[in-house]
């Protein structure tokens, strides 16, 4: 098979679909990843062939309309989903031409799109190809139907194809285990394994220390001028705990955080390698971060940074594997108290290990490749 992956605009999208894409390639299938300049670089970083379909960054897509006019983030949280949906529409629009050229020349058998990559279903309709949606989050808005604002933004492209809406996907690939899978339509479950850029692993990363290890991260997009407040607050709140505090962050951020009291290590950290040695992870509600922790059977303290993740983080808390502190509740005392509970109450670790066991029983990516092959016999 020839499989064209359209993951979305950022690294985490690429790492999300990476397990299936890597499995396809090592199983003898032909694979190409089509993404923005950032996504294409992430794809080649994990050993996948990639085509750059846009030089625009996520920030440019969010803050500039098609005509180059500046856009401002809405102040009303209720307007944010539609604002972001228009960005997904612009992403599809700018990617459509270059990806159409790729499809015309390479002739893939099937398309696999991330949940925000709407060029996939449009091109599938145009070329009569099957298109699967690779789900990457547990939030309903990212799983069911079309994001608000997408079809308004894509009206010219839909009209040119004789469509009045974004076509349905032929398959939904779900990397969430059944016990935490949101209600919705039928899905093809798949065991996800972390795929991310690698560097040489230092021995301490895979060796438990004398004290319990706590991994802290605010995500890969944090910079010295963006997201640092959250990181400072988390480190400050946990500094007095009797733990070995490891902060996963971009190197320029790690250099600043290393100077803070209580921090043993800071900078680039391979989460999948370090987490099995940890007693707790504290994070910003990033889905790939949460899934990596679930695989390792590690309890989580989640501080969701987007409204769409608050309910999902709360659901993980009801399953007994996490505590979630939504915005406004994440005071220094609350953070320290929640971390102590997660470290000292055995029920959290027990529930986290049970979820890891459930994930280990999910169908492997090679099984999903067979399902994709079946789709190729049902072209539109």
TrEMBL record:
One of its GO terms (biological process) is antibiotic biosynthetic process. Residues 23-219 form the Erythromycin biosynthesis protein CIII-like N-terminal domain. Keywords: Glycosyltransferase, Transferase. It comes from the Bacteria. CDD domains: GT1_Gtf-like (cd03784). This is UDP:flavonoid glycosyltransferase YjiC, YdhE family. Residues 234-373 form the Erythromycin biosynthesis protein CIII-like C-terminal domain. SUPFAM superfamilies: UDP-Glycosyltransferase/glycogen phosphorylase. PANTHER family: STEROL 3-BETA-GLUCOSYLTRANSFERASE, STEROL 3-BETA-GLUCOSYLTRANSFERASE UGT80A2. The keyword Cell membrane does not apply. It comes from Micromonospora carbonacea.
């Amino acid at each position: 098979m020839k499989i064209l992956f359209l993951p979305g605009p950022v690294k985490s999208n690429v790492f999300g679909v990476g397990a299936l894409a890597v499995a396809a390639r090592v199983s003898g299938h032909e694979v190409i990843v089509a993404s923005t300049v950032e996504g294409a670089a992430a794809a080649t970083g994990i050993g996948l062939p990639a085509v750059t379909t846009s030089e625009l960054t996520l920030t440019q897509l969010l803050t500039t309309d098609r005509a180059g006019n500046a856009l401002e983030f809405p102040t009303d949280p209720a307007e944010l989903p539609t604002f972001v949906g228009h960005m997904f529409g612009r992403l599809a629009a700018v990617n459509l031409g270059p990806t159409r050229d790729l499809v015309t020349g390479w002739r893939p058998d099937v398309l696999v799109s991330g949940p925000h990559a709407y060029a996939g279903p449009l091109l599938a309709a145009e070329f009569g190809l099957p298109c699967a949606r690779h789900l990457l989050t547990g939030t309903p808005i990212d799983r069911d139907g079309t994001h608000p604002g997408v079809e308004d933004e894509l009206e010219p492209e839909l009209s040119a194809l004789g469509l009045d809406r974004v076509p349905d996907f032929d398959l939904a690939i779900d990397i969430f285990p059944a016990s935490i899978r949101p209600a919705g339509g039928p899905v093809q479950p798949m065991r996800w394994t972390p795929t991310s850029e690698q560097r040489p692993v230092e021995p301490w990363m895979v060796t438990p220390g004398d004290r319990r290890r706590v991994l802290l991260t605010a995500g890969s997009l944090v910079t010295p001028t963006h997201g640092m407040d959250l990181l400072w607050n988390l480190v400050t709140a946990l500094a007095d705990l009797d733990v070995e505090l490891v902060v996963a962050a971009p190197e320029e951020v790690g250099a600043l955080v290393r100077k803070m009291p209580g921090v043993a290590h800071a900078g680039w950290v391979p989460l999948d390698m370090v987490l099995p040695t940890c007693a707790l992870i504290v994070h910003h509600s990033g889905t790939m971060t949460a899934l990596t922790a679930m695989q390792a059977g590690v309890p989580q303290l989640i501080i969701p940074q987007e409204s769409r993740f608050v309910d999902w983080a709360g659901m993980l808390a009801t399953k007994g594997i996490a505590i979630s502190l939504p915005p406004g509740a994440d005071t220094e005392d609350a953070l320290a108290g929640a971390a102590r509970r997660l470290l000292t109450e055995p029920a959290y670790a027990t529930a986290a290990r049970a979820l890891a066991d459930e994930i280990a029983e999910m169908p492997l990516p090679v099984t999903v490749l067979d399902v994709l092959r079946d789709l190729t016999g049902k072209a539109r």
